[in-house]
Amino acid sequence: MPENDQPTAKKTLSLTGLTVNAMALIAPGAFLWLTFAQQCLYGQPMAGIAMWFGILVALLLWYQLGTTSRALGWAAFGLILFEWGIARKSLHARLQAYVATTAAFCYMFVGNLDARFERNQMLMTVLPLVVIFYYIYERLYRSRTEAFLQRDTALRAFAWQAAMGTIALGALLRATVPEANVVIAWAAMVTLLMALSAALEPIDAATLLAFLSPSIAASWLFLVVFGSLGAFTIYLRLVRDWGTAKAGMYAFVSPVIAVLVGIALSGETARTSDVLGMGLMLAATWFALGPAQAVEAG
Fold it and tell me: Which domain holds residue 77?
């Protein structure tokens, strides 16, 4: 065998890998501190104790469970906290439940939806997450008029849980369904979700007809063509050409594009915080992609 064909060692821990893992670890903590502030504003004297209890359990689950079981463990812990918060009408317990489910959702993309795992393994560890997200959504939506859930409703917690369930289900289909059938699977998922929403959240004929106006129909068509077909096509091409880790940085650029389009077409205004946030996201993308591309080019 020629000398230049000999296998060589290659570094695998790149800046992109460090960024993704740091996000998976830091994001839950950031959410936890934010909810701690919300709890203190509403005079919860036990907020601090409950917060450290949640951190301790989350860390124990991190160290005791395997890679594919951590997200499921966090989600199950969040479900327990949620049921306790409903039964005891405890705001800080429910807020920590939302933190736990959000942490499970974030870690799912790092620890569960990986090409190293078999399809059955992904199904067994991600489908329960989808069920938990939708279960919490259904419980919150049915009880959203309850007085003790006013803060949850104001935070749109039920909408966030439903969004995580839908995104997790779509990501699972993308990872487990053959590439040629992914679009068909997503279309079937959308049809099923629309049927379930019509059954669980019935609306009157006047409201339904309002959605058929030309402006709404045009907006829907724009989202389908550019927000779904165009965006997913670009993302899949990036996965093919750049790899999964680099393609994930695409998520940092799309919100910036959306804000700029809103300013240009809808006359929206950007605050100083918006500009700083967009600059931070673009800088993070450059740091994650720029140095790696320079090394490969060299």
Answer: 18-201
Asked whether residue 229 is domain-assigned, the answer is no
Q: Report the largest interatomic distance among the alpha carbons of the chain, rounded to a whole angstrom.
A: 76
Q: Give which of 121, 117, 124, 133 is closest to 168, Cα–Cα.
A: 133
Residue 105 in domain: yes
User: Measured between alpha carbons, how far is residue 288 from residues 77, 107, 161, 239, 285 in Å?
Assistant: 33, 19, 29, 15, 5
Length of the chain: 298
State how many domains the chain has: 1
Distances (CA, A) of 129 to 23, 35, 147, 164: 20, 22, 28, 9
Alpha carbon 94 to chain centroid distance? 19
- Residue 242 CA to residue 259 CA, distance in Å, equals 25
Q: What is the pLDDT of residues 24-71, one digit of tens each?
A: 555 555 555 555 555 555 555 555 556 666 667 777 777 777 777 888
- CA dist., res. 101 & res. 105, Å (int): 6
Is residue 282 one of the residues assigned to a domain? no
> Residue 253 falls within a domain, yes or no?
no
Under DSSP, is residue 116 helix (H, G, I), strand (E, B) or coil? coil
Residue with tokens 């068909």, as numbered in its chain:
184
